[in-house]
Amino acid sequence: MDWRMMLILGMALATYFTRVTPFFFHIRQYRFLKFVPASVFASLIFPDLARSVDNLIAGLLVFAVACKNRDLLVAFLTGVFALYLLKIGV
Question: What integer best gives the mean pLDDT of the chain?
Answer without folding.
Answer: 86
